[in-house]
Amino acid sequence: MWPVLLTAINLKRIADHINLRQKATVSRLLNSRAFYDLLAGDVARKETRYMSKQPKRTCTDNMTIKKIGTHDGTFHCDEVLACFFLRQLPEYKDAEIIRTRDLTRLAGCDVVVDVGGEFDPKRHRYDHHQRTFGESFHSLCPEKPWVTKLSSAGLVYLHFGRQLLAQLTKLVENDKQLDVLFDKLYENFVEEVDAVDNGVSQCDGEARYSISTTLSARVAHLNPRWNSKSQDSEEGFRKALKMVGEEFLDRLDFYQSSWLPARAVVAEALKGRHQVDASGEIVVFSQGGCPWKEHLFALEKELQDEKPIMFVLYPDQNGQWRVQCVPAGLNTFHNRLSLLEKWRGIRDEALSELSGIEGCIFVHAGGFIGGNKTQEGALEMARRTLQAAAQPPANGSS
Asked: How many CB atoms are located within 10 Å of the residue 16 CB?
């Protein structure tokens, strides 16, 4: 109503400086109820235009934003990943990240990672630097095999991982597929971060070469350089948070939408192994590109009494066929059985003439893969190799 009164007062002031005829007009306006109704309606329309249609929220001390505490200064992949994990949960999606070593400020945080010298899940304290800490996934969850010492990333993943994956994949927490994804993402994403942060070597002895493009290494490169004028690490931390988040989500999407469905493909191929060849040592995938190795090893363990698979056959993008050797393990270039040595490095007609198999395209110099124009030709290359392996060595040679 104040805008209405102010308008009326201004009209009275104007009337003091105009002629009698104009004064009479102003007087009639000021004494007209329609004038005041018109002004009141105009003010109401303006207020409606600028007012939110949403009910107003009263700002109180109880509406505090959740706080995630971690250390300031040089940042590392483990606490960056831990912060990302927490922010994917509904409870912490709008949480403020407080980077400090001030114990008083950390005490006011809802969850603290990688700083504070405490591991206490009940109070959401997840540091791993204290001398008494030596926990691994296996020590906290004996049914899990991983013995790498946990960093803040692994600690947060262990305690929140299933909830995190359920939120991101929309699977329920007791879904068996969620359990498979939970294990897979620790083993192939988070464990590496734990190991690097805790200084756990990947192998015994000195490595033959250096790998400098790991996720942990790329996060480290986002810190200010030692001789930079500004040592402010906040911008780099935000970039790192975005980078690790994008990589984790990309990896999760791959495992859920591509890697996990491949398990069913491999299982079906194993069921039909004896229809492919009487030996039961060759399987055929109807489509190429299927990530089969890990699934094959896992499913073979379930079969136990069956012979191990030596070769897999699948079509390539050109409609030709490949015969690939099964490696001796996931992390080795050695094969259970390589294609015949005399075929290696030979191509096309020369290979067909040497092997006596029509349609040969190549055998790799390493002996781990070969190609043929037809499925029957690729199958015959595998069979000939199996037959040769079953024969005793001639004159002491293999």
From this structure: 8
Is 112 strand, coil or helix? strand
Distance of CA 390 to the CA centre of its chain: 45
How far apart are the C-alpha atoms of 311 and 383, rounded to whole Å? 9
Which contacts of 123-130 are long-range, i.e. CB under 8 A and separated by 24 or more positions?
126/82, 126/152, 126/155, 126/156, 126/159, 127/152, 128/152, 128/155, 128/198
- Assign residue 250 a region: left if phi > 0, alpha if psi is -120 to 50, beta otherwise? alpha
Residue 184: both structure tokens together: 């897979």
Helices 260-271 and 293-303, axial angle in degrees (round to 10): 50
In a 13 Å sphere around the CA of 398, the CA atoms on its Cβ side amount to 7
Three-state DSSP class for residue 313 = strand
Question: From CA 259, how far away is CA 257, in angstroms rounded?
Answer: 6
Provide the total of helices (H) and of strands (E) in the chain, helices listed first: 16, 10
Comparing CA positions, the residue from 78, 167, 91, 169 lying closest to residue 124 is: 91
- Lookup: tokens for 264: 């069913």
Q: Where are the alpha helices (DSSP H) in 51-151?
A: 77-87, 103-107, 137-140
Which pair of tokens denotes residue 58? 């009263």
Write b or e for each residue in 118-142: b if 16 or more Cβ atoms lie within 10 A of its Cβ, otherwise e.
ebeeeebbbbbbeeeeeebbeeeee
Instruction: Please count the residues of the chain.
Output: 398
Taking a C-beta distance cutoff of 8 angstroms, is the pair 198, 151 a contact? Answer: yes
pLDDT at 63: 59
pLDDT recorded at residue 25: 52
pLDDT at 305: 66
Q: Closest Cα partner for 325 from 259, 389, 382?
A: 382
Other Cβ atoms within 10 Å of 94 Cβ, number: 9
Residue 121's φ and ψ, nearest 5 degrees, are: -55, -30
Q: Mean pLDDT for each 10-residue chunk of the chain (398 residues)? A: 46 48 52 52 42 41 82 97 98 97 97 97 97 97 97 98 97 91 97 97 88 95 94 95 98 95 93 95 93 93 85 95 96 94 97 98 97 98 96 62
pLDDT on residue 59:
41
